[in-house]
Amino acid sequence: MKKGLVMLLVLLGSLCTLAGCGSNSPQDTVSKGLGLDGSKGREVSVYDTHSGNGDGTSCIVLQFEDTTVLEAIEANTDWGAFPLDETVQTLVYGTETENGKMGPFLEDRDGNPLVPNIQNGYYRLIDRHTDKGTELLERHSFNFTVGLYDTDSNTLYYCELDT
Predict the structure, then answer these.
(1) What mean pLDDT is reported for the chain?
(2) Residue 117 and residue 111: Cα distance in Å, rounded?
(3) Deepest in the core among 4, 33, 135, 157, taking most CB within 10 A?
(4) How confident is the model over 20-63, as pLDDT tens digits?
(5) What are phi and psi of 109, to 5 degrees?
């Protein structure tokens, strides 16, 4: 009896995986990735080039009707208020110095920015790379998540880059 029950559970789990039963919605992905409740966000867009090996760029854009997410961001010390620090500025929009231009890194396949120019808001950078001993912008590969919240439009941008 026990053996039959175990086989049934394995079969159901396989069927559920094939049918996408455990798939995450964009709101679930944002909630898990940023530690916020994104469930009330209206999906504006989803972009994802991650391949089977995990490399790629993704960006989920959610818009909110109320300020619940903004209040959670303001209460969380992991988020900083604009202006962006130099690292996030370079990753999202690029920077230019007398030595040349660096970034942006969050672009679509055609080189278009995934995040529009935000004037007022909050940001969070999560470094998911195993090499924490080297400055993020000096590495040969990237694994990071950036959350950007536009307070003028109540829009949350959740972007990942994995190389």
Answers:
(1) 88
(2) 15
(3) 157
(4) 455 699 999 999 999 999 999 999 999 999 988 889 999 999 99
(5) -65, -20
In sequence order, the β-bridge partners of residue 62 are: 43, 156
Rounded to an integer, what distance in angstroms lies between the CA atom of residue 159 and that of residue 118?
14
Radius of gyration over alpha carbons of the chain, in Å?
19
With a threshold of 0.70, does the pTM exceed it?
yes
Domain residue ranges of the chain, discontinuous segments joined by +: 24-162
Instruction: Report the alpha-carbon distance of residue 8 to residue 75 in Å, rounded.
Output: 46
The answer for residues whose C-beta is within 8 angstroms of residue 39's C-beta and 6 or more apart is 27, 28, 31
With helix as H, strand as E and coil as C, how does 6-41 read?
HHHHHHHHHHHHHHCCCCCCHHHHHHHHHCCCCCCC
CB 47 within 8 A of CB 57: yes
Helix (H, G, I), strand (E, B) or coil at 150: strand
Closest CA to 58 of 106, 91, 95: 106
Q: Which residues contact 163 (CB under 8 A, 6 or more apart)?
A: 55, 141, 142, 143
Q: Which residues contact 67 (CB under 8 A, 6 or more apart)?
A: 154
